[in-house]
Amino acid sequence: MDSAKSSLIPNAQHVNNGGGSESPMEETVLQTVDGERQRETETREPDVVDGKAADLNIHHKRAEDKHKYSTIGYQRRTKQKVANDFGTLSKGTSAGAKPRTALKQVLFSQGVSDKASEERSQLDGLKQVLEAFSLSEDLRWRWNEESQGTTLETSWTDIVQSHSTMSKMQRHQQEALWEFVYTELTFINKLLIIKDLVIAALVQLHQKGFLQEVTPEQLFSNLPSILEEHQQFWQEVVYPMLQEARKTGKPFDPMRLDPGCLQFHKRFSSYHEYCLKEEDNLEFSRRQMENNLHFSTYVQWVENHPQGDRMRLGDMQAKPHQRITKYPLLLKAVLKHTQDPPVEHTLRGMVRIRYL
Asked: Which CATH number does the domain housing residue 333 bear?
């Protein structure tokens, strides 16, 4: 009951006790109060009387809610909402981390770019050193006696005057001896290219700070020593035979090769070391070609050089081994076309020598 109603009741009691009889106003007030009480009673009674019904309604409501929560549709909607909320949260986290990720990518890209720029700069410097490398216009060997023009005639027929009257056997013998002479000088010239172009360019790169990890010995072992031995062999054995034919116009004499071939092991001792390290040198070069851009650039420059005689690096490294194993074949070709018994005997002795 509110304050307005409670204020009316004391006043009504006071009037009734004091006067004995009720006035029309007082009667009206009492009726009003009684009406209020009756309405309040009527309002509360259904809650008391229908208490069991109210409890039953609450029970039904809970059962309906339980059924609703346990349905598949509700559970799907709930899971979908949770998934959406989680996805929204993930997007928020990803969006928040995006600037940091972008910053890492920028820094990483900048590092890679700087490294690539430095590598390009070093590669350009290496190329400049190679392009600036200079050497003689003619790398062919000229020994003391050869001071003019070409070092060797085009054919043995330019030297031997009786070539037109020779038998077929004699001609084949002279051709085999000429091949011995010609291929020996050709081999020396190829070794000169390797020494004066390939090795010298590598040394030039070392002086400028490039390709320090690659040494001439790792590519060609003791090849310069082999070159010196063949130059001496030419001067002391091959050239005297050539010079005698030039002076006399007579056929090449195979007996002039005997002293040099019998002393072969002494004259060419450097081959033992070269052949022993040849496989390691080839493997080292292969790895460098696969993993070292500076080395592959250097090799490409060497192989394309106008004075490189179109040799590949592998060909250069194989030249000594190929030459040393060719001597028995050259001597057998001479022996095959020789009919003079004493000369045959001497040639057989040269062929039997172990050249490797």
From this structure: 1.20.900.10
Evaluate whether 33 touches 8 at the Cβ level (below 8 Å): yes
Q: How many domains does the chain have?
A: 1
Write the pLDDT tens digit of every residue in 5-45: 444 444 444 444 444 444 444 454 445 545 555 555 444 44
CA-wise closest residue to 301 among 116, 128, 122: 128
Domain that holds residue 273: 167-352
* Model confidence band, residue 237 (pLDDT cutoffs 50, 70, 90): very high
Q: Indicate the helix (H) or strand (E) that contains 5.
A: helix 3-19
Burial 24-35 (b: 16+ CB within 10 A, else e): eeeeebbeeeee
Q: Considering the domain boundaries, does residue 237 fall inside one?
A: yes
Please choose, from the candidates 133, 157, 227, the residue with its C-alpha nearest in 3D space to the C-alpha of residue 188: 227
In angstroms, rounded to a whole number, what is the distance separating the alpha carbons of residues 171 and 338?
10
Four-point Cα dihedral 45, 49, 50, 56, nearest 10? 140
The model's pLDDT over 302-334, given as tens digits with 9 standing for 90+, comes to 999 999 999 999 999 999 999 999 999 999 999
Separation of alpha carbons 122 and 125, rounded Å: 5
The rounded radius of gyration (Å) of the Cα atoms in the chain is 56
Tell me phi and psi for residue 263, to 5 degrees: -100, 25
> Does residue 158 form part of some domain?
no
